[in-house]
Amino acid sequence: MSSANPSSLCWELRSPTRRESLAGDTTIPSESGDSMPNKVTAGTGRFALHWTKLGPGRSAGMQCLTVDTGAVVASILPDRGMSLWKCWSGDLEFGWQSPVVGPVHPSLVPINDASGLGWLEGFDELLVRCGLYSNGAPEFAENGSLVHPLHGRIANLPAHQLDVQVNVENGTLDVIGVVSESRFLIYSLELQTRYRFRVGSPVIEVIDTITNRSSKRSSAQMLYHINIGQPVLQSGSSIHAAYRNLTPRDARAAEGISTWNTCEGPVSGYQEQVYFIEPFADDSHWSEAMLSTNDGSFGFAVHFDTRTLPYLNLWKNTVAVEDGYVVGLEPATGFPNTRSVEDKNGRLINLQGGESKSFRLKLQPLVTPNEVTQSRSRIEKLQQVTGNLRTE
User: Fold this and answer.
1) Distances (CA, A) of 248 to 170, 263, 380
2) Helix, strand, or coil here: 149?
3) Looking at residue 202, what is its pLDDT?
4) Is residue 392 situated within a structural domain?
5) How many CB atoms are located within 10 Å of the residue 203 CB?
6) How many angstroms separate the CA atoms of 327 and 319, rounded?
7) CA–CA gap between residue 111 and residue 205 (Å, rounded)
8) Helix (H, G, I), strand (E, B) or coil at 342
9) For residue 326, which phi and psi values (nearest 5 degrees)?
């Protein structure tokens, strides 16, 4: 623990192993989570923290950091690309019940499976990042070999650095992780993730930065796969988003274009529907999307900065509960097509050597009818002020 500034506290839970740490009698740095206190006073309240090792079974060996602000409890998975597993606010759990019993250790996820779909064997988080080199559908070479797996690699790479920083005066707590995705002679991308919590607030802020660590120009993609199931998702639940264009991905999605924003109850054998959205934003470039129950009693909102996340993808997968009843609200740099399709359409992030690009979003559990009404009103105002909607 270090405290150069009396109003700031910092704990290093995981540090990268450097060459000098292996020289002579110096030992490899050990994780020091046991020195982090369970409660930290900041601002006008307290944060509660819990750093634990998961297991047994497919979670064995993984670690989880849980943060409690007094208004939200959130569990972060450093070993799964800094994914947010679940959160709880009021009496409600926000996330979904995947048929994959997780969290799943990345070593058990066959992301390079020949089908390109191995990524799905570890998929059960509330928020999972897709990227960095690719983030969409699997792509294959002419000979049938896999080139890019579904949703990329970042979600199955562990953070090699993890810190907790508390600003006592401002009442904020940041969980900062660094994850590297690189391939010798091909690319070297680094993701710094930052979850920011505020004492007494249910809002989870996400501030991510991708840096090209190579000396050469490179490109990247980013998609935030935010997945919401029961109890928010139920028969009649509604999706709200302010948009310029809304396009069905395929013929299956086109079948439901007239009811794109209404959710069915669980249906065995339901085939997913995906919509590509170009959202409207306010004067500060922020947009908002929400899923709420039919009666508007509670919901979940996603706010995102469209300067670097100019698109929103909607995934409706209202299959039987035991098969993974879920809806995804997914801010992104593009659409989840193959990487080559996104490249042809100019939707890759281009980074010169050493250049960085940052992304901002906020996750907001809505636990009262008034909070749902406020979110819906903000979205409706965006639509009314910025223009008429268009579906294709």
Assistant:
1) 44, 16, 22
2) coil
3) 98
4) no
5) 17
6) 10
7) 28
8) helix
9) -160, 150
* DSSP state letter for 290: E
In tens, the pLDDT along 213-236 reads 999 999 999 999 999 999 999 999
Q: Is 76 exposed, middle or buried (0-12, 13-18, 19+ CB in 10 A)?
A: buried
**CA–CA gap between residue 327 and residue 309 (Å, rounded):** 19
What does the pLDDT look like over 133-166, one tens digit per residue? Answer: 999 999 999 999 999 999 999 999 999 999 999 9
Residue 23 lies in a domain: no
Label each residue of 197-247 as H, E or C: EECCCCCEEEEEEEEECCCCCEEECCEEEEEECCCCCCCCCEEEECEEEEE
- DSSP, res 68: E
Q: Which of 172, 177, 152, 173 is nearest to 162 (CA)?
A: 177
Which three-class secondary structure state does DSSP give residue 331? strand
Nearest residue to 96 (alpha-carbon basis) of 266, 309, 337, 271: 266
User: Contact at 8 Å (CB) between 150 and 120?
Assistant: yes
**What residue numbers bound the domain in which 223 lies?**
36-157+185-386
Report yes or no on 178 lying in a domain. no
Does residue 320 sit within a domain? yes
Amino acid at residue number 78? P
Q: How many helices, marked H, and strands, marked E, lie in the chain?
A: 4, 25
Q: Are 85 and 64 in contact (CB under 8 A)?
A: yes
> Is pTM, for the whole model, over 0.70?
yes
User: Domain total for the chain?
Assistant: 1
Which token pair is 25? 């009698």
**The domain spanning residue 339 has which CATH number?**
2.70.98.10
SS3 163: strand
CA separation for the pair 126, 135 (Å, rounded): 17
| 303 torsion bin: left (phi>0), alpha (psi -120 to 50), beta (else) | beta
Residue 387's nearest CA partner among 185, 245, 275 is 245
Query: What is the largest distance, in Å, between two alpha-carbon atoms of the chain?
Result: 68
- Tokens describing residue 192: 């710094």
Q: Over 22-48, what HEC string results? A: HCCCCCCCCCCHHHCCCEEEECCEEEE
What's the angle, vertex CA 215, arms to CA 211 and CA 220, rounded to 5?
40
